[in-house]
Structure formats: C-alpha cells, structure tokens
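name: query_chain
kind: protein
chains: 1
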Amino acid sequence: MINKTIQQIEDTIRKMDHVDPRKKEEVRRLLGTLKTEIEALSKTHQERAEQIETHLGALSSKDLTDSVRGFEASHPQLVGAINDLCNLLAGIGI
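structure:
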C-alpha cells in the first residue's frame, strides 16, 4: 500500500509545473525516508503503520500527526519524515 501511495504523490508532484524542481526533489527524498521508516515500523507495529499509510493517502497532516504522536519518542525519524513531508506538500499547495 505504501508504494502505491508514494507513487501517487510522486505522480502528482511530477505533473505540477509551477513547483520548484528543488522542492520536487525534496518531496522525493522525504518520500523515500518515509517509505523506509513505515516499512520498519510495520515489522513491529503493523496496525499503526497501516493507519499512517491510510492517513498519508488522504494527505491530512493533522490526522498523520495524531496517528504518530504516541511514537514520537521511540520513532523520531518517522515523525520527522512525516512532519517534513506534510509541511513541504502544504507549502507547495497540495
């Protein structure tokens, strides 16, 4: 599921001509980090990883933040990647 969601976001970004190419590259980098972190999380907390993937599909930064709040201390890279991605996407109008 995460691969499909990431591909959809990448496709959307690729089609947005008004977005700075550096921002597009930053989105791709953050998506890669996010994918790695969610795959690692799914090995120990499958249900939580699925919730995050669902919220990511909806691109709702509030829901994403709520879903991972309990993991912030134990999974700081995951929380950081999600926050960075949501902020960047919001900043470019997605």
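note: The helical segments are 2-15, 21-44, 46-58, 61-68, 76-91.
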